[in-house]
Structure formats: structure tokens, C-alpha cells
Amino acid sequence: MKSALFTxxxxxxxxxxxxxxxxxxxxxxxxxxxxxxxSLWFWSVPQGNYSRIVAIGFLLGWAVHGFGNWRFxxxxxIIFSMIGFWLVLVAGAMMAPVPEIGWQTVEPMAKxxxxxxxxxxxxxxxxxxxxxxxxxxxxxxxxxxxxNLTYYTTVFIPWEFYHGGLDNNxxxxxxxxxxxxxxxxxxxxxxxxxxxxxxxxxxxxxxxVLFSNSRGGMLSLLVTMGVCxxxxxxxxxxxxxxxxxxxxxxxxxxxxxxxxxxxxxxxxGTVEGADRGGRRLDHWKACLxxxxxxxxxxxxxxxxxxxxxxxxxxxAAHSTWLQMGAELGWPGVIFLVxxxxxCIWRLWPLTRQRxxxxxxxxxxxxxxxxxxxxxxxxxxxxxxxxxxELPYYIALIGAGTLRLASPARTDELATSRxxxxxxxxxxxxxxPQLQSISERLD
Length: 442
Fold this sequence. Notes:
The protein contains 19 helices and no strands. It has 442 residues and is an all-alpha fold.
């Protein structure tokens, strides 16, 4: 009953709110895109167009408010790369050997990219980026909580672990992608209850990765931990949080999880998954050969029906990036680099303490985006899952961060580089100059 009330309240209240505050409608859309209420609560929430209703209301509110501000600054290349990627999908579906299969990918991606484009024009403050980060963490944390309940209260079988069209590997990808966002919200939030909430969400997500039995997810979890260690200033408090997080993950990883992870490095494949009819590396080699032979790709969603031409079973390639390259060719690869590679590359300098920023949260947001995207990129190499929406939302945070960290806003702080109180290690949120600038931006 509560789940149905929550779903209907946000579904029909969202469009009303969007007419006055369209960005809030987008936040509801992101929440629904993550938890997928009719999949999570299938026993009480019937199948319906909940996200579509929210999206229509959000887009109407966006139009009423004049379609936002299209000056994206340094984040523009990321947004326009998303548009370019979707156009490549459309062109690929039109030219695909079996167009019906290709169009199955175009529509879901349109439902992701169009709202993101609209939201990108509405983001004007760090406060709005933090709101999006919190919606992601709370939605992912609640989803992880529900999965943990299932794990502890039922006979859990990883190979039958599904949610919203994602299998255990796809679920592990989303969880790894959200952990970095949760960690940095916990590290830098102002209130103790916010820190506890974010860290608890991160712990729940990490446990889902472990009991999902996804080897790619486990490896990506270790990579994410390493990235967080590199990006985080090494104050004593930060060391404590990092060590506690690592200790908790190793404690949750029992003997079965460790044994499963070590099979990632076995010389011979196991009898499950990608190795049942052909080894994973054979699919990867075939994808690379296909990219050389057909630079424009074999068509969206077409690798499973192309693989038999290489003597491989009709199945996914177990690599998001290589399968995308084979299906969409080099144009698709270029736009993917524009989304994720450019985002990480341009945000990285903002993570440094010596780089002046108009608001300390610019630096914190850059760290959470980089850690989340690197976790996704790593896990995506071992799993084919082009239906994961979360990394695009995190890339939107990155684009918004770059927009707000434009040179015009940071030049006024350039003279503060030599001020030791300006340094991140001295908790810059208390610096009066930064506070005044933050208030003007908000």
C-alpha cells in the first residue's frame, strides 16, 4: 500500500510541481529511472507509464519556463556528445540489417538523453547539483536496502537476480557507479545525519556488488576504492573513513565471494555465462575485428546476431565498450569518449587543492563524478549493459560542475592560491570569501 501511494503521489504530483519548478520534476524522473517502482514493487504497483507521465510534465514545465539556458560552458561537449551518440543510434537503426532490432535501443536512450538535455539547461547552481547527487544516492541506497532484504530473507540465487531488465551483472554495474557519489557526499556533507545516510547507502551498495557474484563488479569496486584513495586529500579523518570502508568491504566478502572473484584470473573459463559456448576473450577479439571490417558498425543491438559469423554463440559480447564499438562503429566510440572521457579529463584538474574554484563543492562534485564514472567504465569492460541510465545522470553532474567552474567564475579567486586558509585541507567551507561567492552563485 505504501509503495503504491508513493508511486502515484510522485507520478501525478510530479507534473504539477514541474509547472512551477521543472527541475524538481526531473529529480522525480531520475528517482523513478533508478528504482523502477513497477519492477521493485511488482506485487502492489501494476505495470504503467509512470516515468513517461513525469517526463511529459517535466518537459511541459521546461517549455513554460522558456527552455532554460543553453550556454553550457566547458560542459557543453559532454551534453552534445550525448546528443551525437543518440543520433548515431538513430542512423544505425535506419541502416541496420534488421531495423526492428535496432529501434529497440533507440527509444530507451531517447528517454534518457532528452530529459538530461532539458535538465542541463536548468542547472544554474551548486545546490541543484547537490540535489541531483542526493536523489541518486537515496534512490540507489533504498534499492540496495531492498536487495539486501531479499538476500537475507529468501533463498538467494545470483543467476536469478533481476531488476528492471538488468541481471546480476547489470545491477552490480549500477551499484559500483553509485558508490563514489555516496562516499563523497558522506565525506563532505555538513550534518552528521547526512554523512551517516550517505555512508550507509555506500555500504549497502557495496554489499550488493559482493553478493551479486559479478566478477566485473567486484574488480570495479576495488578500482573505485583506489580512485577514491587517490582523489581524497589525506587528512587523518579521511584516512579513517577510507580504512573503515575498506575493512567493511573485506569483512562482507566471505569465502564464497573471494573464491568467485579469483576465477576472474583463471586460465580456463568456467561453465557459466560467457564461457558456456565461447570464451569471453573470443567475443572481445571478434568485436575488435568487426570494428576494423565495418567502421560504421553492424547496427544497434545487432552483436548477438552477428557473433555466429565468427563461430561464437548468439549472445552479448560481455563488454559494453567493445560491443558498442562493434554495433555503432567508430562514430559511436568517439561520442562515448566525448561523454565519459572528456568529463573525467576536464574535471580532474578541479580535484586538486591548488586549483581555485568558486565553491568548494565544485571540487567535491568533481571527485564524486570521476570515481563513479571510472567505476562504471571498469565494470562495463566485463559486462554488456547499454541500458544502465545512472552513468548518464552522473555525467550530467560533471557537465554542470564544469559549467559552474568556468574561468570567469574562478578568476576572482586566482589571487588566493597562496593563502593557506584557501586550501582544501583546511576545510574551505568555512572560508568567508568562498561563502560569499557561493551565496552569489546560488
